[in-house]
Amino acid sequence: MPTHADPLEPFALLEGLDAEARGRLAQCCARRRFAARQVICDLHSVERDVMFILEGTVTVSSYSRSGREIAFAELGPGHYFGEIAAIDGQRRSAAVTAKTDCLLLAMPDDHFRALLAQHPDIARRVMVRLTSLIRSSNERLQSFSTQSVTQRVSQELLTLCKPSQAVPGAFIVHPIPTQADLGSRVGASRETVARVLLDLAQDGLVIRKGRTLTIPDRDRLGALVEGLRGGLATKVA
Question: In this protein, which residues make up the domain named Cyclic nucleotide-binding (predicted)?
Answer without folding.
Answer: 13-133
